[in-house]
Design goal:
two-stranded antiparallel ribbon, alpha+beta, 18% helix, binds zinc ion, elongated
Length: 92
């Protein structure tokens, strides 16, 4: 999971590792420790709310949990990979 950044898709707030999420079963936890799965009842939360006012930051809006993860795209590494693949093909 290295190089993966987590931030709100709506306001770019970055979770600070705090337990700001409440499940309907009463568990409070950090949703990004478990990729949106409640440790109390194993419910998978596909939507994650940005904490918002009253919390350390955020906008209070709901977004798809998957959209919080930002995987950096490295164009140089991508081009090198494509070139390597075409060289492998020409050697056959
Ligand atoms: Zn729960
Ligand atoms: Zn937000």
């Amino acid at each position: 999971m290295e190089n993966i950044k987590i931030s709100c898709p709506k306001c770019s707030w970055e979770p600070d590792g705090g337990a700001w999420w409440n499940c309907s079963c009463g568990t409070t936890w950090n949703s990004f420790d478990t990729v949106g799965v409640c440790p109390g009842c194993n419910r998978k939360w596909h939507m994650t709310q940005c904490p918002g006012p009253g919390f350390p930051g955020g906008c209070g809006k709901w977004s798809k949990h998957d959209n919080w993860y930002i995987i950096p795209f490295d164009p140089v590494a991508f081009v090198e990979k494509v070139q390597q693949q075409s060289m492998d093909k020409s050697n056959i």
